[in-house]
Amino acid sequence: MLSDRFEADYLLETPIEVARAAEIIAGEQSSGTFVAVPGETPELKERSAARVVALEVVEEVAGRSLPSGRGPHPDERVTRARMTLSWPLTTTGPSLPNLVATVAGNLFELKCVSGLKLLDLRLPPAFAEAYGGPRFGVAGTRTLAGVHDRPIIGTIIKPSVGLDAEATASLVGELCEAGIDFIKDDELQSDGPYCPFDARVAAVMRVIEAQADRTGKKPMFAFNLTGDLDQMRRRHDTLLAHGATCLMASLNSVGLVGMIELARFAELPIHAHRNGWGYLGRHPMLGWSYVAWQKLWRLAGVDHMHVNGLDNKFSETDDSVISSARTCLTPLFPDKPCTAMPVFSSGQTARQAHGTFAALRSTDLIMTAGGGIMAHPDGPGAGVRSLREAWDAAVAGIPLDVHARSHPELRRAPGVAA
Amino acid sequence: MLSDRFEADYLLETPIEVARAAEIIAGEQSSGTFVAVPGETPELKERSAARVVALEVVEEVAGRSLPSGRGPHPDERVTRARMTLSWPLTTTGPSLPNLVATVAGNLFELKCVSGLKLLDLRLPPAFAEAYGGPRFGVAGTRTLAGVHDRPIIGTIIKPSVGLDAEATASLVGELCEAGIDFIKDDELQSDGPYCPFDARVAAVMRVIEAQADRTGKKPMFAFNLTGDLDQMRRRHDTLLAHGATCLMASLNSVGLVGMIELARFAELPIHAHRNGWGYLGRHPMLGWSYVAWQKLWRLAGVDHMHVNGLDNKFSETDDSVISSARTCLTPLFPDKPCTAMPVFSSGQTARQAHGTFAALRSTDLIMTAGGGIMAHPDGPGAGVRSLREAWDAAVAGIPLDVHARSHPELRRAPGVAA
């Protein structure tokens, strides 16, 4: 790829000839009209038009993935193809918001499109210069959390909503006692009147600072500051004032410009929650792949990215989860990797450590477990230890059942005990 | 609906019993876990849990709309139902970003969900107090554009990218000459090096101010200032300094928090471009309905909302377009209507005026035409006049072909001439 162009890969489905569909899409996303207009000279087109640089038919299938206003023929066949489009950087300059309007704009609605998935993005170095990327990433998070050479073991406060600040802090106290590394707010918990942000931060940080004084290790709590910009600024300053070491924000609630701005002023790692990802990514022939999507947020400056977990309670396959986690750990640019720590969650227990490590070959991750910790028959402390022991075994190449024989907390752990 | 709760309507599809699926979704979006946890007392649940307040089976169909990780039975039947969930306002407070995480969060990914469309939202008055809504809306836009008692007739600069500032201004001069009311940048055109924002504003506003001096009417130009927050602030001030009367921003590029912030500082009407809407709304069983989605932006402060157009070049049906336009003109709150002007575009010509007026019974709209104006055989001036004449006829109840007999520009207009 040339340094003055950017590229996007798509899985395209169309009822018309694929090369024609690709040209229509490239036209819509550059000159922006279906017919030549006065002023659109060959020179201007050569300089400014999007180019179809790869197009490979994958399969023919019966029936459209997405309805079209005018309806398909009942016996229609459609073609699926991998397509790469390329744009001159001069279209947008190195701007993430304008990139999004270009690679993920009107094209999904075109009549010739019966399916379109944005698979990947390749951006020239100018984007690495324009955006900060994660300020903390893996190394900065490990330093703040005081956890090295193994995954960061975390949990989430449950019930998600309804506890007041003192009840939340009391639960945090139990979790600190249990040896937890990381705790996060639920995405529904931000600044409601039953558990105001400031009161929650004050109460929780009092407990966490006491734990740090006692043990020398300060568990990381990701406080959900999602809100309007002025609210996020104010809440961020509250976090700093109380010695907090992480903030959380919901990507689809805040949006791209809000996250770019948050990352510019934030002096704490940004734990990014992907709630709403389902409407962007769940259909196999519509919307965003996680691989393309997470690149925007990492470049914007996110430090932790949610990737779901193996054998999760949602609809996502294990392969998809691992592919998401891998992409977060894959450098964006040779000189600026922008690596974000993948966050595994949803039904996670000691049982998933081996599969996760086998697929990822890395411990640079956060694994959050709810029941996997709280539901341990010997208490949350045993729950946390069972997760660490499972990871020790996975990294050392010791099968789970073998390690469990000599480690009773692992043997009795949720998901491991028969 | 009570004033201390908010509600969301969904179309749900599930392979399991619908009442059970509804309870799982309500649980995930409040207490946030599938099992009761310590601390989740009946009192807390009563106070904080989401409630299923309506659930009505619509149909049973064969096969899932969305794949699930574990795959369906081949002969499976799924149930579709309309579902209404209700949350206490105390969950989130009157916060749009936290509302989004609640009504459109993790629920789309649940295993029991094989399809989920957010159909509508009902918000208590506290939201009207927390957010400004459109500062200009229909009345303010009409005053600035100097257009009353008929639709605002507009167009878009084409080619979308590639023209420099002077070439753009020269095209604007032609369009002013033609009597245009409104012109907009393309969503791909923001601040690229071939047509920098500042140079474009200076060159275009010189032409527009000259037109205003000559005729007393100042055509409205919506300059696309989409970018990072500091860039949008700076570009907004440039617009003010040059006497511009409208700004444009891409909703899905800027995102919710960025748009809320833009609306707080903007002193000009906000023309909102919906590019990317296809990935949010095109699948009938996934994501957002336009009705629900546009409420967020209107409350945030958007003045003009894109709704596509009748007989458009995209895949959307006419019914869907009209439903979108109607919803923009429907008050959000009795005391604070937050009405936004719907913007019709895509393949619009004099031919669509009658159908649009018949369905909408209003002229409070912007209709933008490209070829419908520029491709008129008698030139763009005749193109603009043909659109006005078509609307005159539609409002007066005169059939298009009757009016065309006495109005040669209408008779020869693109889409009208045989």
Most extensive chain interface and residues per partner = A-B, 99 and 99 residues
- What is the 3D form of chain A? globular
Strand tally of chain A: 13
Oligomer: homodimer
Largest sheet composition of chain A: 8 strands, parallel, barrel
Order of neighbouring strands in the sheet with most strands of chain A: 5-6-7-8-9-11-12-13
Strand portion of chain A, in percent? 15-25%
Number of helices of chain A: 18
Structural class of chain A: alpha/beta
> What is the mean predicted local confidence, pLDDT of chain A?
94
CA-CA gap between termini of chain A: 53 Å
Fraction of residues in helix of chain A: 25-40%
- What is the CA-atom radius of gyration of chain A, in angstroms? 24 Å
Extract low-pLDDT stretches of chain A: none
General description of the model:
The structure is a homodimer of 418-residue chains. The first copy, chain A, is an alpha/beta fold and 418 residues long. Helix content of chain A is 40%, strand content 18%. In chain A, helix 14 (353-360) runs parallel beside helix 16. Chain A is globular, with a radius of gyration of 24 Å. The model of chain A has no long low-confidence stretch (mean pLDDT 94). At the A-B interface, helix 2, helix 3, helix 8, helix 9 and helix 10 of A face helix 2, helix 3, helix 8, helix 9 and helix 10 of B.
